[in-house]
Amino acid sequence: MLIDRAEVIVTSPDRNFVTLRLTTDDGLVGLGDATLNGREMAVVAYLKDHVVPLLLGRDAHRIEDTWQFLYRGAYWRRGPVTMAAIAAVDTALWDIKGKAAGLPVYQLLGGASRDGLLAYGHASGRDLPELFDSIRDHRAQGYRAIRVQTGVPGLKSIYGIAGNATSEANQGVRYDHEPAQRGALPNEEDWDTRGYLRHIPTVFEAVRGEFGPELPLLHDAHHRLTPVQAAKLGRALEPYNLFWLEDCTPAENQEALRLVRQHTTTPLAIGEIFNTVWDYQQIIREQLIDYVRSAVTHTGGITHLRKVLDYAAQYQIKSGMHGPTDISPVGMAAALHLGLAVHNFGIQEYMRHGTRTDEVFQQSFTWSDGYLHPGEEPGLGVDLDVDEAGKYPYVRAYLPFNRLADGTVHDW
């Protein structure tokens, strides 16, 4: 079963997506997600100029061999562009293998380890009343676990708040926690760590007072804190029993998590900007995190992220796979198949795509009573309507950036 055709399809229904579409000589089609938020066209060039010529004529069944060929054969290894491109190929090959076998991908990974995947949604508000309304809305949608993000007094626009102002180019679209805004230049936001550290514990105190002790709550610090600041926040949030505190420090400084671990028992989730098992090697071995946050899309596909999670399982570390709307429905489906199969699943991030995206990508995965399931269709269970995708050409979009009050660029 040879790869006969490889197409890189860029579409922007509600946001930009990059999809690799492989077709075999006997007509089977496999899809892979290659979306890299805010740097999409870098992966497009990597695929079109360097990877696609290598795929034609290869045996589509040889998934591991193809993975090793693309990773080791390039010599220049790792990094988000390379690993997103490899992930797209890998995921598309799993899709093809499932269709050839007449089975959903999770069955090829060993079968289901559970009946469904617990998912969390993203509630946010500029103030407490708006936040409470958002939490109630998410609970009405069936979410059993909720991430809480809120405005900070004195700051105009920060990550993760649905009510943030958007540029005119977005035509009033609220990008919520995925604020890649269409336009020639990125938007500038502001930040004040001391104000944030004062405010956030009072928010969780209010949320627990309103919604009780049982609701699993999550929070994302988005890489903005020093180790000491992160340790203070983790300790301050201990009375509110968080499911996890995410990305409390910049992920490049992995030793920082030693200090955080010494001073708080709040569970830690890290890794959405990691791309390989080698990025995780120290923090898993030293048990400095509790949840692996990588996406199939950015971590070399199903083949490689499975290896990361198998390594993590040795240390009782669970999955918490990245899954907001910068992961296409193809990437989301891949995460669900992997999450259903691995023993150490923890929770799945999930935000629904827009109507236009759902028209471009037809999906078989289901959402019911707070749980996701990838469905029983052969392969990944996602089809791409090429004609519909063609209605939405790529539009340049950037993630914003942060400055402190004195003008210093800060981690966003």
Structural summary, described in words:
It is a single chain. The chain is α/β, with parallel strands linked by helices and 412 residues long. It has 13 helices and 20 strands. The chain is globular and about 60 Å long. The strands form five sheets. Strands 4, 5, 8, 9, 10, 11, 12, 13, 15 and 16 form a ten-stranded mixed β-sheet that branches. It has a three-stranded antiparallel β-sheet with strand order 1-2-3. It has a three-stranded mixed β-sheet with strand order 7-19-20, with no helix packed on it. Helices cover 36% and strands 19% of the residues. The relative contact order is 0.17. Helix 1 crosses helix 3 (80-101) and helix 2 (63-72) packs antiparallel against helix 3.
